[in-house]
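Worked example 3 (structure in, sequence out).
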């Protein structure tokens, strides 16, 4: 994807306005990727982002767009794992966009990672003006907000509230609009990777209908005897293939330790059945 009007991650030095004291330094992929993240007030990247990144990396993307990038964890992890990937991080918060630029530069990825400040739910004209090209992505990866407005109590911290709860929208559901944007930015046959709440699966299927098909659903369970809390979804634009349910991923043993598979994923290693996407 062309960077267009996007700002290169290395440009402007990723100026955070003297907020360094508000940031933590966090290691991912067994210490190979280091991110600055706001200690309070914003969503912090963690397991959801790692799992989405690993599924995306399994597809070896060329031109990847991370919608709602936050601190950049997902897109930056893919850029680190896939040396040929060109990554665009789309984030509407100026503070988080600056953090994405700084994190890309700090990890030596500024030459392949670009940041676009844009609202995923904004108009197509606004996305073009920001530098997002229609049909330019081989793969869209996203961890969208979990809830619609009114479904849960919104966090008083504006940044965290925006990350977890969609704003008010007119017409179609916010998730449907989110995937409409994903489809708009995708080339024919492009792939989609999304992680979301397990109990939102019905909404996901409805939002993907007519845009993305061949869905592969991987349930994510906190422990073996507990219900799934997340679904990791892979799909292809325009596909008419049937939906499949992939083997479940269990995150923790009874004593709280990561399972071997979850530990490998957090360390940047793909299990054999993930390797072909």
């Amino acid at each position: 994807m062309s960077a267009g009007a996007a700002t290169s991650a290395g440009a402007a030095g990723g100026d955070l306005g003297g907020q360094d004291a508000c940031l933590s330094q966090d290691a991912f992929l067994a210490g190979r990727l280091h991110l600055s993240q706001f200690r309070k007030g914003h969503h912090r990247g963690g397991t959801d982002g790692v799992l989405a990144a690993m599924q995306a990396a399994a597809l070896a993307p060329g031109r990847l767009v991370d919608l709602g990038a936050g601190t950049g964890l997902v897109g930056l992890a893919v850029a680190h794992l896939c040396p040929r990937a060109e990554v665009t991080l789309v984030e509407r918060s100026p503070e988080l966009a600056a953090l994405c630029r700084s994190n890309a530069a700090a990890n030596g990825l500024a030459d392949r990672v670009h940041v676009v400040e844009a609202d995923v739910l904004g108009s197509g004209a606004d996305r073009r003006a920001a530098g997002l090209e229609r049909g330019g992505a081989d793969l869209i990866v996203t961890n969208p907000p979990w809830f619609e407005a009114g479904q849960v109590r919104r966090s008083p911290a504006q940044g965290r509230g925006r990350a977890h709860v969609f704003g008010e929208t007119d017409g179609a559901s916010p998730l449907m609009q989110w995937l409409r944007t994903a489809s708009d930015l995708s080339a024919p046959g492009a792939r989609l990777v999304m992680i979301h709440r397990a109990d939102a699966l019905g909404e996901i299927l409805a939002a993907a209908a007519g845009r993305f098909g061949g869905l592969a659903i991987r349930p994510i369970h906190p422990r073996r005897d507990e219900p799934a809390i997340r679904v990791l979804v892979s799909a292809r634009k325009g596909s008419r293939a049937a939906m499949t349910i992939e083997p479940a991923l269990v995150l923790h043993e009874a004593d709280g330790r990561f399972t071997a598979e979850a530990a490998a994923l957090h360390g940047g290693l793909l299990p054999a059945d993930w390797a072909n996407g």
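Notes: The chain has a mean pLDDT of 87. The two ends are 21 Å apart (CA to CA).
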